[in-house]
Fold this sequence. Notes:
Mean pLDDT: 83
Number of strands: 0
Number of helices: 3
Structural class: mainly alpha
Low-confidence stretches: 14-19
Shape: rod-shaped
Helix content: 55-70%
Radius of gyration: 50 Å
Largest sheet: none
Amino acid sequence: MARTNTARKVTPQNTERMVTNQHQITFRRPTPLQRHEKINFALAGAWMFLLTLGVVATNINQTHAEFNYQTITDQVTKVQTRNANLKEEIGTLGSRTHLMGVAKQNGLTMNKKNVRNVIK
């Protein structure tokens, strides 16, 4: 076959072949959601919302419980401090030197043989 510079007439059949031989890029439209898919998404969203509310409510309750715990701990510490102070005062009041001082102020004398201190 000899090559010539003459143009060939292209028939519609040849163009169809050319189009079918090329890779065509087609874009698919997203399919609309089915009814059951919409229901599933709604239920999942509602479940997530309820879980979020549960977490927030739990955090609020925990904060409230910590506040109550701190308040009670402060009260216990105050009572323990008061008890320790009272025990120290009892020890001071029951000491021999204190008793001798009170007796001396009131003009009393103590017979050392008859004195007993009982401290529990």
